[in-house]
Amino acid sequence: MGRKRKGLPVSGWVILDKPAGLGSTQAVARVRRAFGAQKAGHAGTLDPLATGILPVALGEATKTVGYLVDADKSYRFTIAWGASTASFDADGAVTETSDVRPAAQAVEAALANFVGEIAQVPPAFSAVKVDGERAYDLARAGVVLDLEPRMVVIHQARVLGVPDADHVTLEIVCGKGTYVRGLARDLAARLGACGHVSALRRTRVGPFGLDDAVTLEQLEDLCDRGRGLEALAPVETALDDIPALAVTDEEAFRLSQGRPIVLLPRQVETLKARLSSPDGAGFASRTVLAMATSGPAAICEMRAGQLRPVRVFNL
After folding, report:
1. 17, 47, 89, 186: the active-site residue
2. Residues 20 and 50 sit within 8 Å (Cβ to Cβ)
3. Residue 47 catalytic?
């Protein structure tokens, strides 16, 4: 007989505005503790230096984390010119200095070279695994790492402002796996300058933006007053990009048992149209969210006129 999980069966998303100085794991622990929740996780690590959107999944929402990790993200960040650091942010030791202070126009021109699909070497101080160990643990131990470049996508990049000659503030929209610190490193190198990220704020993850966010203090106050559920977004919020299909309670029960359900021809045609790739060459995805009257029933895959459950929700 399995051990009963401690805590309350709370399910949903908290769109946390993480403060600086707190690691993502610490932030998740505080959210979980505020709700007394059984289970919690997050969709995309934020460095302790960074602030902004950290989506925290509670209960059944943890089953949707993978879909949000793949979502596009937006960042605003400031590069401080004059010094490069080991971690490419303000927490690292200075490794090199320079008197070069690039003008805004030069930064804008150089930035254009990083828009699109690019090869990026992750910073040594990152969560990338090397022989089963985190790169940042090896880097802190003094191990010199030679990390392989990875393909990432930066959809948009622009200069927001120049507070003074020593700083420039940028904004990017990017795909999964993009390191802002890596971009700052490479941009500085292209400009023949030294620089590091002195401030970083994540402003969006998939459907979640700052307008939806709550601070830890606000959240803990709500929970103390028994109103924590007001800060919860529904489990299915992270699945906004997945086509939803209404199913009957009987069909939802069948899916909950791990059994497929047969679709009507009109349902198949509707889903095919919504799942097809933009060029019409095939399916962009076969993933469908089955929605019962009581809420999400299962994440499914459509094949051969059937919906086959992949992840079942127990709500």
Report:
1. 47
2. yes
3. yes
